[in-house]
Design goal:
The protein is α/β, with parallel strands linked by helices. The chain is 33% helix and 16% strand. This is 5'(3')-deoxyribonucleotidase.
Length: 177
Amino acid sequence: MKKKTIAIDMDGVLADIEAHLIAYYNKEHGTAITKDSIQGFSEEEAFKEKAILHGILNQENFFRTLPVMADAVESLLVLQENYELFIVSAATQFPISLSEKVAWLGEHFPFIKWENIILCGSKNIINTDYMIDDHSKNLDYCMGKPIMFTAFHNINQTHHLRVNNWKEVVDVLEKTL
């Protein structure tokens, strides 16, 4: 029997880009932004200095050194028993991130085959049974069942099934088997 498929976003889902970006932005801009202080803001509202933000996201080793989300590795190991996992990241906007993301995945998720890593621009073409992402712009076009991973910028959005952490992801998906 063919396994159901899951598309899993990297930044904000597998990788804790929020903490990393806040630390880099505060250092570059001399601010004291915290995760709590940006809850409910869009990324543009939270990080107002676009030139600084763009510079950070194009900085060598930014994506390579992202911290892993709590319980992500263990959760993917559990999920791969019953699902085929695809890591899908809209990486082409920041070309320097392409090789860094592949290296990051190789280090933290070595059990994900290279064939199951999709680095793209738009995710509109992704056709899996489930998609886990932190951005509505990706989930709104999901051809399967969308699952929103909580992030500061989506906290007020209520039109997708929401999960707050990887333990909740596993619980939700194990109930669908």
